[in-house]
Amino acid sequence: MVGKACGVEGIRPGTYCEPKMTKLGSQDTTGPMTRDELKDLACLGFSADLTMQSFCHTAAYPKPVDIDTQHTLPDFIMNRGGVSLRPGDGVIHSWLNRMLLPDTVGTGGDSHTRFPMGISFPGGSGLVAFAAATGVMPLDMPESVLVRFKGEMQPGISLRDLVHAIPYYGIKQGLLTVEKKGKKNFFSGRVLEIEGLNDLTVEQAFELSDASAERSAAGCTIKLSEESVAQYLRSNITLLRWMVGHGYGDRRTLERRAVKMEEWLANPSLMEADADAEYAAVIEIDLADVKEPIVCCPNDPDDAKLLSDVAGDKVDEVFIGSCMTNIGHFRAAGKLFETAKSGVKSRFWLAPPTKMDEHTLMEEGYYNIFGKAGARTEMPGCSLCMGNQARVNPGATVISTSTRNFPNRLGDGANVYLASAELAAVGGILGKLPTPAEYMEYANKVNSMSDEIYRYMNFDQIESFQAGADEGKRIAAEEIVTVS
């Protein structure tokens, strides 16, 4: 992929290169710095094909300086041909992923800019500004670590458990240590290449690529099927044109990206690793051996343990949200709330990743279920995950679906477990981390409704988005004619 972006067949590890950027993201805590650096570069128009600005880290509880940024930064981005989201739209990654092209390279000013299609190499605000202005980024090509899954997922096991299986098996192989003294992290600075889960949807794949940030990996790729990628692109074409129809800009950039998606669909193909590809290490995970949930313990995303090793610890609060979640996780939590005959024992925080998820969950009646359970629903965005907005009570024990659980991030002195949304919901209902047997009682109920719960946001199949997309395509066509 990097070779393709450089116009050559491939790039070997250790080689300096400057891959072409097809997409990059800027979020609101670093966006003002990126703006200043773009001014220093005298950038009047972006060379990167698609540059996107979000406001997900500050929208819910903005300070006066955040309000100023929200009022001034969108025009700055759109005037240079970029795409600007709006406060309340949701998490940058859930949106930026919708604008990806297969087998291409990008970057972003957030460590969780980890594409589920293609590859991204996140950087600081200065690198994002350079990439946006010049259309390329400087890169010393990293080595790769192969993570190969095989077999079939076991009942009750979620993708989040497979996310945590990577550090768990890394520890078993001696590639990762939890102890800070003499810390070893073989993943650090290398690319994670994940295969063996080809039938994942792109939304599901992002759970795995997203968490590569917690491994300190330089980037991540996931082998997916053409069918999964095609389904995602068809949905995203509709979303992009819906955005044009609803006044998002830059219109020409959004339409250009939609056209490029259509071009891929007309001739679909995906790159894959060579049969003789070289890796710095290989981790093989037999899914038949992952028989119970895996959590990451307080307060270290590397400290992966089996649920049976930590069962019984009290749970004061639960957070279900962040870029690691999608609409299926919230439906699953809602269904589990309905099965809780004696109510829930912990305080719940729920923050859908985008306003589209929020709208759909409302239409389906889940917000009514959340309200009856006493859950606090937050504006779509980062919420507790970032730690600069809402906070849990000091000293609380928390189960979180967020990306990381560093000390004091979610709350002062909080002890935070990272887990799947399903396990988080069960833990909050019981007020403790369940035993594997207790968890399976609830998980079996979710499994029996999986077709209803794990339906993803296919915008091309939602009538209201189709109508908006038709209007967006008409607007874009008129603008192209006017410019011509």
Report the radius of gyration as a whole number of Å: 22 Å
Overall pLDDT, averaged? 96
**Helical run tally:** 17
What is the overall silhouette? globular
Parts with pLDDT < 50 across at least 5 consecutive residues: none
Describe the structure.
This protein has 484 residues and is an alpha/beta fold. Helices cover 38% and strands 14% of the residues. The chain has 17 helices and 18 strands. It has a five-stranded parallel beta sheet. A five-stranded parallel beta sheet has the order 16-15-14-17-18, covered by helices on one side. Helix 3 links the parallel strand 3 and strand 4. Helix 8 (226-245) runs antiparallel to helix 9 (251-266) and helix 11 packs across helix 13 (366-372). The chain starts with a helix and ends with a helix.
How does the SSE layout of this entry go?
Layout: H1 2-6, E1 16-17, E2 23-26, H2 31-40, E3 51-53, H3 64-78, E4 83-84, H4 92-96, E5 105-108, E6 119-120, H5 125-134, E7 139-140, E8 144-150, H6 159-172, E9 191-195, H7 202-210, E10 219-222, H8 226-245, H9 251-266, E11 281-286, E12 294-296, E13 304-306, H10 307-310, E14 317-321, H11 327-339, E15 347-351, H12 355-363, H13 366-372, E16 376-377, E17 397-400, E18 415-418, H14 421-430, H15 436-448, H16 450-453, H17 463-483
Parallel strand pairs: 2-3, 2-5, 3-4, 5-6, 8-9, 8-11, 9-10, 14-15, 14-17, 15-16, 17-18
Antiparallel strand pairs: 1-7, 12-13
